[in-house]
């Protein structure tokens, strides 16, 4: 019988299955993408950052093996006989279901047995969402980092990189050290030099036995040694060096408001709205990384504009014509009454299929240029249509020329094209 | 003679090892030491033990890699992990108290959440019960090499990782998927395989790489071309001449188009299948043996006064949960509980030795009244589930478990009760239950029948149905995997009594004819 070793493995890595789990998600990415797309449709745009339940039909995840099918003659032994005796017969249930195979039962939680259900994490959820949007990795990282930090000065340290060397501090330290180490000796040198001078100027004793000669020589030697000592004190030493120290600090909380403007006239289909929703989600996630508090204002319009809640914004249907300026006017009114630009960073995203009354488009252009763009950080316009542009687009193009820093527009025909609009925003913010 | 007369209780002069249910490392060692002493009294022969305390998350990891401490990466293990962790988080499913690995030293995982009595139970169950079974049972001795398995797993993981790097994740995944589909057909049931070791394996793998391609080319080159060979006898000759049960082995050695690394992957899956093969054939025995010993060893501890009543109450509660057998009509019923059956059989075997009745003397003349420790060891060492049941299932156990046999014939309108736990029924039940644990009865009998070496190189598998039971609905899916590995058409014919009763083809026949 051998010795037993008892080992504590609890501190060894868990997550040994992480790679296998990742392999599983990779294999079923199409299923998961669909689940994520459904969730995006279902969820509020402010509720994107959590995991999701995913169900995959079991026939897709089953690993096939050769096994017996139904039919033929089977004999099975079971425990717990109560009243059967040999030779008894029992009627088969109609439909000829298999007996005692334990198949086709419902699971206790009511979930179908023909579904393989599991959870993906928040991070995985965002990854699949970004896949959908074809987000580059760098942008993903920026969006997923849970907190934004900035570096603040926090005193000095004796260690650091040359770039952070503080010259004034270091030299001041060196000076102090030189004083500390050399001060006493310099004082002694000064005293001894005074004595020496006095000694030299005094008349020498005639009696060689009392001559100052030896005394002078001894003093001179001592002074020379003291001076050499003082000279050996380095002008600057490693211990004098001081480096500026920085601490990571969460960025101070600031507030932003995000205006979502959308055309809900009859020509906007649910598909258009879903694309718009993804765009708004991306903007929200981006803002969330930069601001602690974000208000979202939903403005929908056809011929007139109205501030609504999210549900109504995305899912109620309207018919009729389109007057875009109504929404811009309402937005301006809301800014004036609730979101003073001195306290709020204002962002706006407008989605439309490009339809507008031709007479209205110049009005929009003027409203933007005169009263809205001066107040906002950024205004993005997405036109969701594969068709030719109309008047509104050309008016907005002129705006972009005049306000390249705060206005962007882009045409989008499918979700993969949303990101390019976005990149402009990132580039500007990163600079 | 009863148990207590046989080995009278020693006076409980000693203090129990501990009274709290919190475990500590020194306490685990102390308990292990005492359990080891008890195990030695009963002659349990084990590999050295390595007891590893792990967290619940780590237990889920261990679960999803079928208990292998090292494993190659594959999505199916990820799937396992997802369903395990989901069940666990919802509280639907407790995790196993332990996982034990057939290796030398024998590694047993203990979950940190367990109370002290549970940890003691697990140590007795895994480190002395399962461990001695691994070391003693003939199937494990013949089929697995406990000292080499960890090294081999490391080799396999590294090799698969290298392949992924060189040939891409998808290419490797496809081969592994196909191999997994055939894993149950990757063992030699009768031949003893050569033992494996990792260093040896790495060296041989190089040799194989060079040798195999040459050999394979020879096979296909030396086959006479069709038009050259007019001899009808030779044209009728099959290849292989004898049907081959190890389908994966046959493919590894004979598939015309596989790359060398693909053959090596097949080999890795085969070797793992071989390693797990004994476990699949000894579930009742292995769990029964381990359960019998945790029960017996902890009672021995109690007799010695090393554990107190509170400890025993908690232990017995867990023990009875483990050996609970719901009846066939219970909503919790999911087949015969191997723990219950195995534990009942070993317990009854001991009773037959120590306290035989007339019935026992009639049924078991050779063992009634013999030394029970010796008899149990004999049974543990020389049998697998099928033969163990055939040899040792007693009328008393059949009565206690109230076994009955029910027949479902698709040519009849009714189910028939063919035998119950009574005099005329015992032998029938025993025989049928033994057969129920025979792997070659549980799994369809499918073998390599022929390769059309002179023609289209197609591979024909032959299925021999038992009692007209057909193949299940996965068959075509599995054939696609066989086709992927073989590289040419694959046929499967079910042959009952010389008649082809069913066929399947990949690619499907109908499409070919269109």
Overview of this protein structure:
- The complex is a heterodimer of chains A (431) and B (514).
- Chain A is built from 13 helices and 13 strands.
- Chain A has helices at 18-27, 29-42, 58-61, 122-133, 137-144, 167-201, 213-232, 270-290, 310-315, 325-338, 361-372, 391-402, 418-430; strands at residues 4-8, 52-57, 73-78, 89-91, 115-120, 149-157, 243-250, 255-263, 293-301, 305-308, 345-352, 378-384, 407-412.
- The longest helix of chain A is centred in the middle third of the chain and has 35 residues, at 167-201.
- In chain A, the strands form 3 sheets. A 6-stranded mixed β-sheet of chain A has the order 10-9-8-11-12-13, with helices on both faces. In chain A, strands 2-5 form a two-stranded antiparallel sheet. A two-stranded antiparallel ribbon of chain A has the order 6-7.
- Chain A folds into 3 domains: 18-60 and 112-133, no CATH class; 162-245; 253-430, Rossmann fold (3-Layer(aba) Sandwich), CATH 3.40.50.410.
- Chain A has 431 residues and is of the alpha/beta class.
- The model of chain A is unreliable at 97-112 (pLDDT under 50).
- Among the domains of chain B are: 3-137 and 282-321, no CATH class; 323-441, no CATH class.
- Chain B has helices at residues 3-6, 25-41, 56-64, 75-89, 116-136, 138-143, 149-167, 169-181, 198-222, 232-236, 247-254, 260-281, 283-303, 309-322, 338-354, 358-363, 372-382, 385-392, 395-401, 426-436, 439-442, 475-486, 509-513; strands at residues 49-54, 98-101, 106-111, 404-409, 414-420, 445-451, 459-464, 490-496, 499-506.
- In chain B, the strands form 3 sheets. Chain B has a 4-stranded mixed β-sheet with strand order 6-7-8-9. In chain B, strands 1-3-2 form a 3-stranded mixed β-sheet.
- In chain B, helix 5 (116-136) crosses helix 13 and helix 18 (385-392) runs antiparallel to helix 20 (426-436).
- The longest helix of chain B is centred in the middle third of the chain and has 25 residues, at 198-222.
- Mean pLDDT of chain B is 87; it is low at 1-8.
- The chains are: A alpha/beta (431), B alpha/beta (514).
- At the A-B interface, strand 1, helix 1, strand 3, strand 4 and strand 5 of A face helix 2, strand 1, helix 3, helix 4 and helix 8 of B.
- Strand 1 of chain A pairs parallel with strand 1 of chain B.
């Amino acid at each position: 019988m051998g010795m037993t070793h008892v080992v504590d493995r609890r501190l060894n890595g868990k997550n040994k299955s992480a790679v296998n789990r990742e392999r599983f998600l990779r294999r079923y990415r199409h299923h998961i993408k669909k689940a994520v797309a459904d969730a995006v449709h279902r969820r509020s745009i402010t509720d994107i950052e959590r995991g999701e339940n995913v169900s995959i039909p079991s026939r897709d995840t089953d690993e096939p093996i050769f096994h017996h099918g139904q039919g033929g003659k089977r004999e099975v032994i079971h425990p717990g006989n109560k009243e059967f005796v040999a030779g008894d017969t029992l009627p088969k249930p109609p439909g000829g279901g298999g007996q005692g195979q334990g198949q086709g039962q419902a699971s206790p939680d009511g979930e179908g047995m023909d579904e393989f259900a599991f959870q993906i994490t928040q991070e995985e959820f965002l990854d699949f969402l970004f896949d959908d949007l074809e987000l580059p990795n760098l942008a993903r990282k920026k969006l997923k980092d849970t907190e934004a930090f900035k570096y603040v000065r926090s005193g000095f340290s004796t260690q650091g990189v040359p770039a952070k060397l503080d010259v004034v501090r270091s030299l001041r330290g060196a000076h102090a050290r030189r004083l500390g180490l050399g001060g006493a000796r310099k004082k002694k040198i000064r005293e001894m030099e005074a004595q020496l001078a006095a000694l030299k100027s005094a008349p020498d004793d005639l009696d060689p036995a009392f001559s100052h000669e030896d005394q002078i020589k001894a003093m001179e030697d001592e002074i020379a040694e003291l001076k050499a000592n003082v000279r050996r004190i380095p002008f600057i030493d490693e211990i004098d060096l001081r480096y500026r120290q920085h601490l990571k600090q969460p960025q101070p909380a600031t507030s932003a408001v995000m205006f979502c403007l959308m055309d809900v006239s009859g020509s906007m289909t649910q598909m258009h709205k879903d694309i718009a929703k993804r765009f708004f989600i991306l903007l929200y996630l981006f803002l969330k990384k930069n601001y602690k508090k974000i208000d979202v204002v939903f403005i929908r319009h056809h011929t007139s504009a109205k501030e609504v809640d999210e549900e109504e914004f995305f899912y109620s249907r309207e018919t009729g014509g389109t007057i875009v300026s109504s929404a811009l006017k309402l937005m301006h009114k809301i800014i004036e009454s609730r979101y003073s630009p001195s306290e709020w960073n204002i962002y706006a995203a407008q989605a439309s299929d490009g339809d507008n009354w031709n007479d209205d488009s110049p009005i929009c252009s003027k409203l933007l240029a005169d009263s809205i763009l001066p107040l906002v950080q950024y205004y993005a316009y997405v036109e969701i249509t594969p068709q030719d542009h109309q008047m509104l687009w050309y008016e907005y193009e002129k705006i972009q020329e005049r306000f390249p820093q705060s206005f962007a527009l882009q045409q989008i025909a499918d979700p993969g094209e949303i990101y390019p609009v976005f990149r402009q925003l990132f580039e500007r913010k990163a600079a | 003679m009863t148990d207590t007369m046989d080995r009278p209780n020693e006076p409980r002069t000693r203090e129990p090892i501990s009274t709290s249910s919190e475990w500590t490392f020194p306490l685990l060692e102390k308990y292990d030491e005492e359990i080891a002493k008890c195990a030695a009294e009963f002659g349990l022969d084990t590999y050295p033990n390595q007891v590893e305390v792990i967290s619940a998350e780590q237990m889920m990891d261990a679960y999803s890699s079928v208990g292998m401490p090292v494993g190659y990466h594959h999505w199916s293990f990820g799937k396992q992990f997802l369903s395990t962790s989901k069940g666990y988080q919802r509280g639907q499913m407790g995790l196993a108290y332990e996982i034990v690995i057939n290796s030398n030293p024998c590694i047993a995982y203990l979950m940190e959440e367990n109370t002290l009595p549970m940890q003691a139970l697990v140590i007795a169950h895994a480190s002395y019960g399962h461990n001695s079974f691994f070391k003693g049972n003939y199937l494990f001795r013949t089929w697995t090499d406990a000292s080499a398995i960890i090294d081999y797993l490391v080799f396999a993981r590294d090799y698969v990782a290298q392949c992924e790097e060189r040939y891409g994740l998808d290419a490797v995944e496809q081969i592994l998927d196909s191999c997994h589909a055939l894993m149950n057909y990757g063992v030699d049931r009768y031949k003893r395989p050569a033992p494996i070791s990792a260093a040896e394996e790495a060296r041989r793998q190089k040799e194989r790489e060079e040798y195999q391609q040459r050999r394979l080319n020879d096979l296909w080159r030396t086959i006479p071309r069709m038009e050259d060979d007019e001899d009808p006898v030779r044209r009728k000759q099959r290849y292989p001449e004898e049907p081959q049960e190890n389908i994966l082995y046959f493919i590894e050695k004979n598939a015309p188009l596989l790359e060398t690394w693909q053959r090596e992957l097949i080999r890795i899956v085969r070797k793992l299948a071989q390693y797990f093969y004994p476990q699949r054939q000894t579930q009742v025995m292995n769990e029964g043996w381990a359960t019998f010993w945790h029960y017996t060893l902890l009672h021995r501890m109690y007799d010695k006064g090393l554990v107190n009543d509170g400890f025993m109450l908690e232990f017995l509660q867990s023990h009875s949960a483990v050996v609970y057998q719901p009846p066939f009509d219970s909503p919790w019923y999911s087949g015969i509980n191997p723990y219950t059956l195995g534990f009942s059989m070993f317990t009854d075997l001991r009773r037959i030795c120590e306290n035989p009745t007339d019935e026992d003397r009639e049924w078991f003349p050779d063992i009634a009244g013999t030394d029970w420790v010796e008899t149990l060891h004999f049974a543990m060492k020389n049998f697998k589930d099928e033969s163990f049941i055939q040899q040792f299932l007693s009328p008393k156990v059949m009565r206690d478990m109230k076994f009955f046999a029910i027949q479902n014939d698709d040519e009849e309108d009714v189910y028939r009760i063919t035998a119950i736990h009574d005099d005329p029924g015992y032998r029938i039940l025993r025989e049928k239950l033994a057969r129920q644990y025979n792997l070659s009865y549980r799994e369809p009998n499918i073998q390599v029948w022929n390769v059309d070496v002179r023609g289209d190189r197609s591979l024909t598998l032959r299925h021999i149905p038992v009692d007209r039971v057909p193949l299940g609905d996965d068959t075509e899916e599995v054939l696609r995997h066989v086709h992927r590995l073989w590289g040419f058409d694959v046929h499967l014919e079910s042959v009952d009594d010389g008649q082809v009763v069913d066929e399947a083809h990949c690619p499907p026949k109908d499409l070919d004819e269109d």
